[in-house]
DNA sequence: GGTAAAAATGCAATAAAATGGCAAAAAGAC
DNA sequence: GTCTTTTTGCCATTTTATTGCATTTTTACC
């Protein structure tokens, strides 16, 4: 599956269309929640034919982020999480403090608050911290 | 300076009042922006008499966070950032993508959006990503 | 299709941030 | 001051990410 849209977006961003970039981008687009680089590697190891090196995944994600095809979320966990930048309006995320699950919420991002002079905003991010349904149910384990 | 209020809050939380906990809590309270554990260590190394071990700082911060005296922010950088939990209403933060400066904004946190059923929110966090005044000025360096 | 230049990759080494184990030290109750 | 429990310091280790460099892949051009 050599999705022509992914290829085009990479080419339009001025980069070379490589197996690693396509695989990473497709992986993030198919996931229904933001993934860590390691989770991307796991997914590719299970579902893909050619599995890129871990460093290549880091570099591919990084390139995609710098060129606006994916975005890195602010997280409380140790690992970074990424999601594809798509048509969908920017939205809020829920982060479970127990299992670190991060999931997209329907809520749109709130409006930009006033900033100190000279500061320029590029993105507004809303993070809800709490317990997911599963963790709440089994909290006393 | 053995601030009785900090001591009391630690004791009320059920812990022992130690030099490290007091120093870390005071450091975060005196800083005007959220700090990383390493920045706390630097501050203490410069301003304090007894400088705790790095691991002790991690453990003190962690204890303070678990007991609600400080809170950990969601960040895009690799290092965690903490700020004291004080009287002040929960507020938004600005994170500079170039220098990683994180600063408190006057804007209060927006209301909680609807969550999937079974999910419980404990905190709402608003993060503004962009460029700080200094980085914007010198962006082409 | 073949060739050359530029960009991307794999692999090993290294760095940054955080955590775990354990004996020694400090804190608090008496 | 003594005793018990908690905390600390030190060292080793883990997790996550980055860097250097030779090799491979991509793309532009013929
Ligand atoms: Mn999302
Ligand atoms: Mn703040
Ligand atoms: Zn959970
Ligand atoms: Zn800046």
Description:
The structure is a homodimer of 141-residue chains. Chain A is of the alpha+beta class. Chain A has one domain (3-137): Arc Repressor Mutant, subunit A (Orthogonal Bundle), CATH 1.10.10. The first copy, chain A, is 35% helix and 23% strand. Chain A contains five helices and five strands. Chain A has helices at 4-12, 19-30, 37-47, 54-66, 133-137; strands at 70-73, 81-84, 91-96, 102-108, 120-131. In chain A, the strands form two sheets. Chain A has a three-stranded mixed β-sheet. In chain A, strands 1-2 form a two-stranded antiparallel sheet. In chain A, strand 3 (91-96) and strand 4 (102-108) form a beta hairpin. In chain A, helix 2 (19-30) packs across helix 3, helix 2 packs across helix 4 (54-66) and helix 3 crosses helix 4 (54-66). Chain A is globular. The mean pLDDT of chain A is 94. The A-B interface holds A 72-76, 80, 92, 94-95, 97, 103, 105-107, 110, 112-134, 136-137 and B 72-76, 80, 92, 94-95, 97, 103, 105-107, 110, 112-134, 136-137. The complex binds manganese (II) ion (2 copies) and zinc ion (2 copies).
What is this structure, in a nutshell?
By secondary structure, chain A is α+β, with helices and mostly antiparallel strands. Chain A is 35% helix and 23% strand.
């Amino acid at each position: 599956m050599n999705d022509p849209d992914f290829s085009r977006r990479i080419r339009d961003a001025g980069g070379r269309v490589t197996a690693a970039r396509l695989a990473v981008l497709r992986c993030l687009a198919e996931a229904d929640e933001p993934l860590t680089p390691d989770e991307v590697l796991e997914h590719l190891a299970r579902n893909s034919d050619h599995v890129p090196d871990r460093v290549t995944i880091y570099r591919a994600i990084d390139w995609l982020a710098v060129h606006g095809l994916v975005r890195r979320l602010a997280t409380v966990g140790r690992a970074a999480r990424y999601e594809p930048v798509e048509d969908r309006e920017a939205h809020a995320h829920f982060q479970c403090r127990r299992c670190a699950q991060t999931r997209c919420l329907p809520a749109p991002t709130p409006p930009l608050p006033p900033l100190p002079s000279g500061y320029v905003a590029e993105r507004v991010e809303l993070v809800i911290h709490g317990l997911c349904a599963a963790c709440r149910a089994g909290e006393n384990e």
